[in-house]
Design brief:
Chain lengths: 269, 349, 250
């Protein structure tokens, strides 16, 4: 992705995260814990597991539906980050060619099974991570982390980074537009001018960091970022977590997919 | 290279998470004790700098492949080990959450690979004794290059170990290492030079920063510090913005290695029986049906990556295939149904 | 009422790079006064303001806020008394949500949660921005940010309010709201600005700074209609007076 695309991408994800749906209203801690458990459960499946993973797609599907998150947006982001996993996993079919199953008369090697498993796990875990941000604002996640025991210093570092990131990217976009308007298609000379403009405009961002510090001092800052007390758990949060736990337990240990397949086979026969 | 969740096992992920969390807690406590307040916005800006810098690929001369900046060493030298670790961890966290670059479970691994080695191993044990007192530019160059090379080699090898120990990939340790180490060596040489350039600039512009880090206590900053931050920032936007447009189109280092190796080396096929494999699978799936069935071709219209569950006796079992297709269909129906219901409810209002 | 007094006595300030920004500033502001600080760019307005809450310490001379002389040790205490609002609201809203930003000050003062919430509510209501409290700052418009920045300072209930170019980025309506708001405050107000019409509307007294010294100090009406004085300091008549003076027969 180009810089512009990445900026709009983050911006869009950020904006989605501030919507108000039943999912967004859940406590951040519930969602963080839920996501962590989900990822852990998915990863805990064996190397060759395929069928058992399929029901797990219900979690991202429901989150996207209830949280009004566009499916294509998430799917595209999953695909964009997949190359590394694909290239590592790709070796499995190459290296592991023992026959493991016959599907419709075609021999399928164990390597293909594990590769497919990797891909499914990848899709599930990545979408779960993205949906965590998409349904809980970044600051909501930071709040949750803090309440769950993350060191306060690290949490405020995350918050500052998040705040400055948009500022930085916006300034870059403005510079880019200004440069493009005066380049008339000639990129060669553009770079030197671009570098200079960037340097100047970026100094402004740096000055901004100084001014922010000054503003903090002016309001009594003495080194500790203050934070309010805990938010309380309400019953939707508990319901969510219980449902998650049940869902994860059932689908992890009970081969539901198999069962359904068997029933279907029985019916067809 | 950021590790993905799909490639690690819970055991490996949890272990590395525990390690990173422990170090992170330690670093935070030390920072709280020693930190000059002004460093807080500085840490934020440098975090954004590293973030932008990591988005840019550079071409590794001679090989035609591309790599990208880690930045761990620069941070360690300028901010001291604790702040550097925290900043690196924050950058990786934001990348994982916003870009899904690196998994959540794998975040522990990534923070360890890219944060721990430069900050707590290479910097205190190698760089600081060698060039920490701000000596000659030549020494700084040598120290930087060697430090970065070492840090990246450690990081890359950790990726190899973590992947192999997780057991999800078939790559044997030797071959994988052979892929990762040379590539990261090349990347590290370039990054080492960049690091040296940055450190030498800071040494001439604001020497007390380096002195501060050497005493593992970041010094306070006066107004002119902004020149230093400015350079970073400029570098950040320059790399992030400008160089992006000139980013190399060569495939990432790893992919290049893979292509090269796959073509030239015929990796020997493992000479094991099928039985042990299936026994392992069988232990995990005690409920599997044990019968064969012939399905009319073309019945299942599912996704291509939905093969059958290997049956106990090696025969055909398409129960998994059918089941998978049905479940997937159900998931889609449920998802779309909920969406439509919500939309309808919203339109009614 | 001495805690509302601001006194500069022969204050000098030199930046680390050698620039002599203030060369002997002397004035005294008493309880409830509303004072405008005007001057050319580089005259020393911002530097002067930065002494008000101890961000800068004078290299010579004394600054007294209330009963406290400004020293390194009294800085923190002084920051409770002087609320500072800057030119770019973006720089002052650095927390994840509006509520967090406005609560930042009271929390730093060590107040308990209930009192903090009360202060936040009160401050936001004062600037008609209570509805925005859960929004992140980067979703706000310029005028909204400006109002919230003021609320963030007012939540600390300072005795003295200092502002640097408060209306610089505001559209006319927001600017008008700001002016009305400032006129309702009873605090001592010190406002540095190029917007001479705002100064005329809000401040009864005006100090002109030129080259690091006080060039003039008196009622705004007098000073801001003295064309010669203003033009000698790279300023000009407030726009509202220009219309009038042009309409008047020579």
């Amino acid at each position: 992705m180009t810089f512009d695309e990445k900026y709009f991408d983050i911006g869009r994800l950020d904006r989605l995260s501030y919507r108000d749906t039943v999912v967004h209203r859940l406590d951040g801690r519930a969602k963080v814990i839920g996501t962590a458990l989900f990822v852990l459960t998915v990863i805990s499946f064996s190397k060759y597991e395929i069928a058992g993973l399929v029901p797990f797609f219900l979690y991202p599907a429901l989150l996207m539906a209830l949280g009004d998150i566009p499916v294509r947006f998430i799917a595209r982001k999953v695909i964009v980050v997949s190359p590394f996993a694909i290239f590592i996993g790709m070796f499995n079919p190459i290296l592991d060619t023992r026959a493991a199953a016959m599907i419709f008369g075609v021999s399928v090697s164990a390597g293909w099974l594990s590769f497919a498993s990797i891909l499914m796990k990848f899709a599930l875990t990545v979408s779960a991570a993205l949906l965590l941000i998409a349904t809980t604002s970044f600051s909501g996640v930071c709040h949750a982390l803090r309440q769950l025991g993350c060191p306060a210093l690290f949490v405020s570092q995350l918050q500052f980074l998040h705040r400055y990131l948009f500022v930085l990217m916006e300034e870059t976009m403005r510079i880019v537009r200004a440069r493009d308007m005066r380049s008339f298609g000639r990129r060669g000379t553009g770079l030197k001018v671009f570098a200079r403009l960037i340097g100047i405009l970026f100094l402004r961002t740096v000055d901004r960091a100084e001014r922010i510090y000054y503003a903090m001092l002016s309001r009594g800052f003495r080194g500790d970022m203050p934070a309010l007390g805990q938010s309380r758990w309400v019953w939707p949060d508990l319901a969510f977590l219980s449902a998650m736990a049940l869902f994860l337990l059932i689908f992890r240990f009970v081969p539901v997919t198999e069962g359904i397949g068997r029933i279907a086979q029985g019916v067809i026969r | 290279m950021h590790m993905a969740d799909a490639l690690i096992s819970p055991a490996v992920g949890a272990t590395l998470w525990a390690g990173s969390a422990a170090v992170g807690g330690f670093a935070s406590r030390r920072l709280k004790r020693d930190l000059d307040d002004r460093t807080i916005p500085l840490m934020g800006v440098l975090g954004a700098f590293i973030f932008a810098a990591q988005m840019v690929n550079f071409t590794i001369p001679g090989t035609g492949s591309s790599g990208h900046l880690g930045g761990g060493m620069i941070l360690a030298i300028l901010l001291g080990p604790h702040a550097a670790f925290v900043v690196m961890a924050s950058v990786l966290t934001v990348q994982a959450l916003f870009f899904a670059d690196g998994g959540l479970l794998a975040l522990g691994c990534n923070i360890w690979n890219l944060g721990f080695y430069p900050s707590y191993l290479v910097y205190p044990l190698l760089y600081k004794p060698w060039a920490g007192e701000g000596k000659s530019p030549g020494r700084i160059l040598a120290a930087s290059v060697v430090s970065v090379v070492l840090a990246l080699q450690l990081g890359a090898f950790s990726v190899v170990l973590e992947t192999v120990l997780s057991g999800k990939s078939e790559l044997p340790l030797g071959a994988f290492a052979l892929l990762m180490q040379p590539v990261h060596l090349a990347i590290a040489l370039v990054e080492g030079f960049v690091t040296a350039g940055v450190i030498n600039y800071v040494r001439t512009a604001r020497p007390e920063i380096l002195a501060g880090a050497a005493a593992s206590r970041p010094r306070g900053t006066q107004m002119p510090l902004r020149k230093v931050i400015a350079t970073f920032a400029a570098l950040a936007l320059l790399t992030g913005g400008g160089l992006s447009w000139f980013a190399s189109t060569h495939p990432d280092g790893l992919e290049w290695s893979i292509e090269k190796i796959t073509g030239s080396q015929g990796l020997p096929e493992p000479d094991q029986g099928i039985a042990p494999v299936f026994r392992r699978i069988q232990e995990k799936t005690a409920f599997l049906p044990d019968y064969r069935f012939k399905l009319p071709a073309g019945e299942a219209r599912q996704e291509p990556a939905d093969p059958a569950w290997p049956a106990v006796d090696g025969g055909v079992s398409t129960a998994g295939v059918i089941g998978g297709a049905i479940v997937l269909g159900m998931v889609m129906v449920i998802g779309m149904g909920v969406r439509t219901l919500r939309r309808r409810k919203r339109d009614d209002l | 009422m001495s805690h509302h007094i601001v006194e500069f006595r022969n204050v000098f300030f030199r930046y680390p790079d050698g620039t002599q920004a203030l060369r002997g500033i002397t004035f005294r502001i008493t309880h409830g006064e509303s004072v405008g600080v005007v001057g050319a760019n580089g005259a020393g307005k911002s530097t002067l303001l930065q002494h008000l809450n101890g961000y800068l310490l004078p290299t010579a001379g004394t600054v007294t806020i209330g009963d406290l002389p400004l020293t390194k040790g009294t800085r923190q205490e002084i920051r409770r008394k002087v609320g500072m609002v800057f030119q770019h609201p973006d720089d002052q809203l650095f927390m994840p949500t509006v509520f967090d930003d406005v609560a930042f000050g009271p929390l730093n003062l060590g107040m308990d949660e209930a009192s903090v919430r009360e202060r936040v509510r009160g401050a936001l209501e004062m600037v008609n921005s209570l509805a925005l409290q859960d929004k992140p700052p980067h979703h706000l418009s310029c005028g909204q940010k400006s109002a919230v920045a003021i609320a963030a300072v007012m939540a600390m209930e300072p005795d003295i309010l200092a502002m640097d170019e408060p209306a610089a980025n505001l559209d006319p309506r927001s600017r008008r709201s700001l002016i009305s708001l400032l006129r309702t405050f009873k605090h001592s107000r010190i406002i540095a600005s190029h917007d001479l019409d705002l100064i005329l509307d809000v401040c009864g007294r005006c100090i002109v700074i030129g080259d690091g010294v006080v060039v003039a100090d008196g009622p705004s009406e007098e000073i801001l209609s003295d064309r010669a004085l203003l033009e000698a300091n790279s300023l000009e008549l407030p726009l509202s007076l220009q219309r009038v003076s042009r309409a008047m027969p020579r």
